[in-house]
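Record filed below.
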Amino acid sequence: MPTPSTPSSAQKKQLRLHDITLIGIMGVLAMCGLIYEYLLSHYAARVLGAVESTIFAMIGIMIVAMGIGAYSARWFKAPFTAFAWLEAIIAFIGMTMILVIAGLIALSEGLPYILSQVFNLPPDFILDGDILQTLQTLAATTPYIAGFLLGAFIGMEIPLIARARQSLYETHLENNIGTIYGADYIGAGIGAAIWVLFLLSMEITTAALITASVNIIAGWIFILRYHERIRYRTALIIVHIVLMIIALILAKSSSGWMTKLTNILYQDQVVYSTQTHYQHISVTERQRANGQPSVVDLYLNGRLQFSSLDEHIYHNMLVYPAMAASRRHDNILIIGGGDGMALRDVLRWKPQHVTLIDLDPEMIKLFSGQGDDPLSKRFAQLNEHAYQDPRVKTITGDAFIEIETLLAENQRFDSIIVDLPDPNHPDLNKLYSVHFYERLKLLLQGDGAMSIQSTSPYHAKHAFQSVGKTTSAAGFAHVEQYRQNIPSFGEWGWTLATKKGKSGKVRLSELTELPVENPWVSKALLLAAFEFPANFYSNIKKIKINQLGSGQLYQYHHRAWATDQGVFNTKED
């Protein structure tokens, strides 16, 4: 059996250059692959709503598809040619997938309205025929289809580049696969860091385009370096030129296209849209006749947070019961509420100090009037320039961590207002846990009261009841729940807790009148809000407490809203 000849120093140098090229390209493409996975998971979770299950499903689908792709790579006999074409395909899918998904979802959401206009149907008539349901199902599965295709093509990269490297050495390489996998893992780690540090806060089509552009550049380097080993070079060069042209067109127009597609998903015109490091913020506006001010709605990750038309109902019901049930109003803590509306209502009670903790500094900037656009000024007027009040201290950070600093400083508060988004994301679940409420209890004065935004008692009954039961488990003396109808949301609910002495409802009933006048809130209205149907709490013993790390409340909330919107056929018992 012939023994392979020992390569000369010149050949060794040439092989090292090949290694640098191939292993470097593999690392870069692994970086792109992981970013594509995050992009699809992030966007799919945003538009489909079920954050945790969507992300995990997307990751699982892409991993399975990568395995299928790796197995399928053996069918290609010319690894250099196959790899070059593979990168072109991945770049094309990567730069267009978000727009395609957004287009299908916009079509599925907008078509019923278009048909209603064409056939002059009544405004309250809901179109939900088989064709529309099929289109909506297709739109909902498109992210997973894109994830499978990308995963399959990405899975082919390692076997193809390993075969290409071995063919250059013209001998068996003992650690060939290990070397390629090493580059893949390191590249994926770098991709994760780039996603978290830079791309996460970018507009999603821009992030996809940047990633795809890196793919195209890697493809060009591969073609130029190994053009003599690649078949159909001319066609491949033309394809890469076309990809560059598409990338330039998308760089100029994709943001505008995305805005138009997003507009279809909302009832009113989108006037502001940005992706912060923590969430996607959208604002819509609807003009009204007779010189009335326009209506602006705030959406976080596609979910309505308030409408300027009736936000006063929500915030009055959040703030007034806790403030009225507290003996003093000198030092107040607000958890969440970055829009400043709860802060506005708290300031009407003439406190000496107010501390507000919110995660997103961009949210606070938008609502504090610091932004240059008129919308920021409009929001500052809506919250009555609450952030400019010298009594207000703003802390940007995770409330779960920041309250530990307040405890270490031995701070105590007369009232605590918890104005967090619904527990529709696993990260929010910890802020509705027994542990978190126990820490808030330590911050609350003995004669104070705490109110908690507690989702809808109608749409998410078990989640609503779990908030109350979890608060009781934290050791509060009295925990009561109340509700009110908000036109933009429907039936909504809150939880009121006192640490010692009488319950919040009893304290309210003993007042002759509210200490702070309000054109909408009255003592009778607040007391009536504590009344529920006779059988509302009949199954309360079956409701589980939300422990830290259990995810119980998130599951209650997700299951309830998914059932309400027709995602599941099962009912919440």
